[in-house]
Amino acid sequence: MSIYSEKDAKAILDKVIKLSKADECTATLSGSIDGNIRYALNAVSTSGIVSDAELGVQVAFGKRVGTATINEFDDKSLEKVVRRAEELAKLAPENPEFVPAIGKQKYGESKTWFDSTAAITPEYRAGVAADSIGPSKAADCIAAGFLADSARFSAMANSNGNFAYQTSTNLDFTCTVRTEDGTGSGWVARNLADVGQFNAKDEIKIAVQKATASKDAKALEPGKYTVIMEPAASAGLISFMMFGFDARRADEGRSFLSKKGGGNKVGEKLYDERVTIYADPADPVAGVLPWDDEGLPRERTPIITKGKVDYMQYSRYWAKLKDKQAKGQPGNLIMVGGDKSTMDLVKSTKKGILVTRTWYIRMVDPQTVLLTGLTRDGTFYIENGEIKYPIKNFRFNESPIIMLNNIEEIGKPVRVGDDESPFVMMIPPLKIRDFTFTSLSDAV
Amino acid sequence: MQRRDFIKATGIGLGALMLPIYGRAIAADELVGKLDVGLKKQLADTAMTAAKADGASYCDVRIGRYLRQFVITREDKVQNVVNTESTGVGIRVIANGTWGFAASSDLSADSVAKAARQAVQIAKANSKLTTEPVQLAPVKGVGEVSWATPIVKNAMEVPIKDKVELLLGVNAAAMKAGANFVNSMLFQVNEQKYFASTDGSYIDQDIHRIWAPMTVSAIDKATGKFRSRDGLSMPAGMGYEYLDGKKEDKFDLPGGNVGYGNSYDMLEDAVAAAKQAQEKLKAPSVKPGKYDLVLDPSHLWLTIHESVGHPTELDRVLGYEANYAGTSFATLDKWKSGKFQWGSDKVTLFADKTQPHSLGKVAYDDEGVKAQRWDLIKDGILVNYQAIRDQAHILGLDHSQGCCYADSWSSVQFQRMANVSLEPGEEKLSPADMVKDVENGIYIIGDGSFSIDQQRYNAQFGGQLFYEIKNGKITGMIEDVAYQIRTPEFWNACVAVCDKSDYRLNGSFFDGKGQPGQSSAVSHGSSTTRFNGINVINTARSLG
Fold it and tell me: Are B72 and B13 in contact (CB under 8 A)?
């Protein structure tokens, strides 16, 4: 069992802080129980449970910092890890960008724990695999999927008297369903904190339907198209853009938010005025811990408001240098939308392309955040409000900044988890004009 | 290649408390110790005895100590020095014809025996869902053997002070040569891996790898334009001697560039990078269209990795990776036909776990199979895949190809890419001679942006340095270049490969695969190679 209670976690962290002879000491203690099941070719391939906990200790002598970690918590081990961090700190060169540990903080509340998710059993996971494989087989399809669930605790304390503790749960499900002849492929993904909101049987219908409906895709010419991006399709592009919001990067002239002649573009309107994105640890659906990696409190933070850049992310060092206040870094991204579903957006589209998912997104030019990637597992041509036929996948070369200027319509946000993103996201389906596809892909 | 692993490893995006991602952080002097081989054998025997007693028909035991050191700097500052260690045992068994796996960080005899019994229990539970029992290609036990990467200087024994001095010296040289910013790093890995199996093998291996990446940036404040040039080093299966920068390991390349072979002059490259980052700010934008591409090995490795290495992994071909990394266009029927023209007759691509200085070089893989070399594409034709013990029978092979790997004692080993490389041309040909023959082309050095679809057909690649070639001459640097390919058409457009005197390796420290994800290090070698009539796009955009 590696989910420590607040009392037990505090007792360990208090001992660590007391043991340290350094000028300052910050310690984090976290642990999780992670379960997963993986299946492919309509059969379970692997499943496992990993239970682990880790204590990290960072100490400083002046501007010399040392970090050590350990996964044993008896008194002898605690002493060992503190001394090791102290030895490393003494060996380390001075860090001219050193900023002392944070003071005592007040954190807000956020709902991140659900008993239902923490109670997932191996039988439940096997059931999800069976619920994916059964309907796929019945439709002459082949399922490959992965369910990963976790229950976790996070605690932090420092020699200035700060302390934080919270538990969280998460469930991530993805399933790719391919037709037996390999000419059709569909996909579904769900990311949740509460497994009570999850029903694999319902989800798998989407993937099976997309797989069978995407058989015998036609080739369209690459070019600029109106696209309906499902939430998972645009999440990766929007998340990538956040790298540019680092204030130091922008002030140094290395971001799309760098200003000609120096400084950054905070306060400038760079997006369509319907674009509003904020972070809020207390969001009821996409809640995250109320503190960031440095222990700074996360608050509701406007990032883009009605198209205007409202936020730059300041590290504590850069904030000090620029005379700004360092605030907790966002753990989630919430894009404001309306009430329409993806299919509602399809209905209002004369000619366009429905994109289920984007894949292998990489930065081509950080100057403009030009990203490349491909559509995958369900790409369809829309005419007069109806899905007409499946089309071959495209490669895109597009910037999320341009994409968020070419908005036609915004639907209802849903929670999205992205394998390559550090954020939990609420992203709506988007209708975008002039989205740039540069070549065709034969991949199914 | 996985972006997330790189970000995690470098600590980019983390807060003040930079915890290492691999195991616990330890003091530098602990990085040189080793576990006693006698103790490892004893523990392995304990595990195998326990597994067999509980009904396992096969058992392998991996006792691993994974050591890593990261030194991360920017300009005149050391941002982080982290030493990590992760030690434990992973036990894999076959019971009732099904795999089972369990792992523990506790190396007491009781704990190891318990993990072995747990693995058998999991195998038996999973066997209820098994449709076909595991078929293992035979391996003859080799008894007690040991092997170590032939390093000259153990990087873990070099004092941190020397490494910091090297990187800060490199940064200072780049700044002096006109850079506005420099990030440089040193990654060192030592995998101390002990493998034992019920086939009668007890294999002790000591594997070393090193990588010294850097990014040099130039800014034009007036226009708001910024450009960067990454270092041209390769991650290598070598010790600290890789950083000796020997004269005989330097290659004179067209455009006044220097390429690096089996050692790297980081200081020299930093100065070149600073000048070239400035030059990139002023270079004209490419006119899109069809060009003949001349690709340096520091660039081509990534194209080989994505368009040949991955699609020839048998588990992808069969569909086991369908939900994440994807499947492959190189289906079994194409291979069975014996006629699938992957590339032109100039193209022979081979898998090789024995290449000196490569990231994948070992004596035995993580299921005790001897490292080997085999052809994947022979004279343009698809002739083989990459398969491990439980896949070999699918290809009608009587042996595994020895490319099984786990990134930790706590991960299950599975098929991972061997070093996959392009055979050099037989006729004498240098990069300078190759350029002389090109009327309208682009010469590309260094790897850049990369993206490929889930069946490995459509790919797009950028680079670090792009030079326009007109009528056999390099006319100057150009920018905003990316090329798009369809894999078989690209390799069929290969018209010339330079000879072996130009052959160099490069590779990736962080190749991602699997769910949960695992990372592996892999090299790819080639000589400079020419591809005719490739589609080049212009990547410049305006944000208004």
Answer: no
Task: Tell if the CB–CB gap between A444 and B455 is shorter than 8 Å.
Answer: yes
Dist. CA B441–CA B534, nearest whole Å:
9
Spell out the domain ranges in chain B: 3-225, 289-542
Which residues, at least 6 apart from A323, have a Cβ–Cβ distance to it below 8 Å? Answer: none
Question: Closest-CA residue in chain A for B130?
Answer: A43
Task: Supply the ipTM of this predicted assembly.
Answer: 0.94
CA distance A413 to chain B (A): 24
| Three-state secondary structure call for residue A12 | helix
Residue B463 has which token pair? 């680079």
3-state secondary structure of B90: strand
Q: CB A420 to CB B20 under 8 A?
A: no
B3-225 sits in which CATH class?
alpha beta
Mutation target vs B (from A137, A173, A364; most B CBs, 10 A cutoff) = A364
At residue A203, φ and ψ (nearest 5 deg) are -65, -45
pTM: 0.95
Per-residue pLDDT of chain B (544 residues; tens, 9 = 90+): 444 444 444 333 223 333 334 444 555 555 556 788 999 999 999 999 999 999 999 999 999 998 888 889 999 998 877 777 788 899 999 999 989 888 888 889 999 999 999 899 888 887 877 778 999 999 999 999 999 999 999 999 998 889 999 999 999 999 999 999 999 999 999 999 999 999 999 999 999 999 999 999 999 988 999 999 999 999 999 999 999 999 999 999 999 999 999 999 999 999 999 999 999 999 999 999 999 999 999 999 999 999 999 999 999 999 999 999 999 999 999 999 999 999 999 999 999 999 999 999 999 999 999 999 999 999 999 999 999 999 999 999 999 999 999 999 989 999 999 999 999 999 999 999 999 999 999 999 999 999 999 999 999 999 999 999 999 999 999 999 999 999 999 999 999 999 999 999 999 999 999 998 899 999 999 999 999 999 999 999 998 7
Q: How many CB pairs under 8 A join A and B?
A: 230
Query: Cβ A362–B19 below 8 Å, yes or no?
Result: no
